[in-house]
Design a protein that fits this description.
Helices cover about 40% and strands about 20% of the residues. With about 400 residues, the chain is α+β, with helices and mostly antiparallel strands. The chain has a domain of about 90 residues. Strands 1, 2, 3, 4, 5, 6, 7, 8, 9 and 10 form a 10-stranded mixed beta sheet that branches. Helix 2 crosses helix 3 and helix 2 packs antiparallel against helix 11.
Amino acid sequence: MKQQNNPPLCNVKDTKEFFSSAMKIMFTPVMKRRSIYTEGDVSGTLRNAIADRLYVETYIRNYGNTRTPSGDTMFRLLKGIASESGSHRRKGSDMGKSRKTVRTGIEKIQSLLDLIVKKAISTGAFSTSVNVAIDEHDHPYYGTDSRYLIAVGSKKFRVTGKAYRFATLESVKKGERFVLSVMRRDQLDGIDNSMEVRTLIGHAVDLGIKINIILMDRGYLDAGVMNDMDIMGMKYIVPAKDNPKVLRFREKEMHYSAKNDLSFLVVNDSIDSGKEVAKTTFVHVRYHRDGKLHDFCFYTNIEVTEDNVENLAEIYRERWSIENGYGEKIVFEENTHSPDIGVRYFIFYFSVLLYNLWILINLMRRLSGLAWIIFMDFVIDMKMGRWGSITGDFG
């Protein structure tokens, strides 16, 4: 029999048991001494609601049992570990304690997220540089108004113009699409686009990630961001906005490459954000792929040629490529009616933790020659403690 150099299968079981236990332990500080519920009951309820993509309240009402805390109990415990100080600034509230609790709850999850990425690196993942995507996630907020919320305008969401925001940096490598960095944003944090991008990148690099190209949406078309990328020696791709200048560029005659059967235009340009100006390159490319015509304009600091222009466009276009065996990239949502913004922050981070653990387990399974498992099956196995189906020990 050919000897395998892959990690032993029991490592998958040990890894899963470790993180499953860690998810329970983080609730220990808010559990009453004589509570009829355990930490596992609380973490399991939250985990299963996220897996079923149900509101926590809906899951409890429809699928709860004797080991499921009531809605009131569940949110009392969640507030205890994740209450956001800015969401209940009432006279007499223990603001110091609340603020400390926020840091403790989120930091525990953040440390587990970092451990997952380091574990992935130890298995051989990220041995080469990877493309990453930076994105902001706005979630509508219908609870009590707070100056910590982001004003997004009434057109983005129905009823409310307020949202709470997260920013993430994720690997876009198929099968290793880990969330490498995550941070909360609010309008009082003093963080602009440049600092946000530097923070997310810096965290991933500190973990040992080597970055190839950074993919950002139009919201990051900012001179400060682009200058920072040049200073850090990072390559980027950002879609162009359809402003008057870009529309003029789009009308220019494009060069046709018979060699690659595509048309493209490269223009040395600059972005002026008021406080500073960044030199960059505008690119317009038109090509056919998979029977479809793709017409894409973007800015980059990468040297563009007829041989790499289509590949650069494809790298950006496929940044949210579908994972094998899973219908779509998992969407992180708070899935709760709770008006407490801290609870929603915590549930989002907990969702990211579950997602990263799922990707890690599948990475380890692949190294052991096992098939990919979908997210729902992964969570069911956590619920049932069926380590065998994860490690391949039976059936």
